[in-house]
Amino acid sequence: MYTFKLQAALDHRQFVEDNLKKELAEIRQRLMAARAHLESLISKETNTAAAMKKDQAKGMSSDQVVVYQAYFNRLADRIATQKMVILGIEEQETSKQGELRAAMKKRQILGKLKDQGCDRYNQMELKKEMKFIDQIAVNQFVRKTIYTRGDGQ
User: Fold this and answer.
1) 113 secondary structure, DSSP code
2) Which domains, and CATH codes, for the chain?
3) The pLDDT of residue 62
4) What are the tens digits of pLDDT across the range 44-88?
5) How many CB atoms lie within 10 A of CB 11?
6) Are 29 and 59 in contact (CB under 8 A)?
7) What proportions of the chain, in percent to the nearest 5, are helix, strand and coil?
8) Are residues 34 and 85 in contact, defined by beta-carbon separation less than 8 angstroms?
9) Distance between CA atoms of residues 59 and 42, nearest Å
10) How far is residue 18 from each of residues 5, 93, 104, 131, measured CA to CA in Å?
């Protein structure tokens, strides 16, 4: 049975790769949530703009216009902040993808070494088996030759 001498290192690299995949998945979930929050802020802005136009058609006081304008300003600030948050998360995602690619390459290198070692082991076992079979065939030939000659010695 073949035993890979660097199996502990391979297992560790697999563990690191799995952790990076998990971290990347968490970052992607945060990114999706941040994008959904941005969409909700934008829809609030759109809905509020429609409500303001509706109120303007009915006639509204200057106090109400000031309130709407202040709300729009705060909403615009929140939208800008959310866009910056999304950019930060996207940078984290890109960075984590690079780390994951590097970890995968390191693991794959050890995996290839393990496969090559296993192939060499199997070839050696096959050679041993072929030598054994050849020995059996030679012994049978010698026995058959001795028997047909009648030497018996």
Assistant:
1) H
2) 7-122 (1.10.287)
3) 85
4) 999 999 999 988 888 888 889 899 999 999 999 999 999 999 999
5) 13
6) no
7) 90, 0, 10
8) yes
9) 25
10) 22, 16, 9, 44
